[in-house]
Design brief:
This protein is mainly alpha-helical. The protein contains ten helices and two strands.
Amino acid sequence: LAPMVATLLASVSFQQRYVAPLCGAASFAMNGHEAAGPASISIYLTASAAAFVAAWWGYNRADANGELLFGEYHEDAFQAALSVCGAFLGLAFGLPWSMLPVPILLLLSVAIYLSTFLFRYFLIVLFVLFSGASFIVQYRFLYFPKNVGLIPGYEITLAKFAMILSGVGLLVLAVAGLALRASDGWAAERLKRTDLAGATLCLYAAALSYLEAVAIKEPADVVSGENRDEDPEADTSAVGFYDPYMALITGALTIALARHL
């Protein structure tokens, strides 16, 4: 009992020090001052971690006779534990009840993919991630009064630019799925001959380079609320819309990914 209590206290301390501030910031961004408090966030995180440990412990666990622990309902129990884990994790980050299926579906699809490594299941992961990204982009950037010059003479809203950037980000995940897919399955030999993973990575690198070049030269133009109150005439033309150091990081990650293909 003592080791379990010590582990629980250490987990709560770690949550309050490192994880709860991130959850609180995300919850405040979506819910404002109605965001959950630190105690509620810690309860949600603890419940999510407990459900994940239960799912991990019960995965393929058999009894003395070699039968699965829950018999024919073993897979249902495993999926239920993952669903509880995703639901409480979403609540910890302040997701509304209508968006809780997103983390649940994400965990379930990742579990199915890791158990099979079939690319068609990885596509489900990509669809769920794109749905979550669409919600975040629409929530955060839909009403920003800013346009971005995508090509000379043509501008799009910041929300559309963020959606395009999210779609490009899914390409690098598709590269990972193609590289880690099972060796057999439909069109496996054809994919190896055409090097679809390499072609997708080249498309990702070209699209990301162009979008980052557009974002780097774009001025911020949007002042935070505090600065606007202090100085309504503040000049933000020298403030970059995109940090150039992020381009160095994404470039290094792309090179590392290409090196391991």
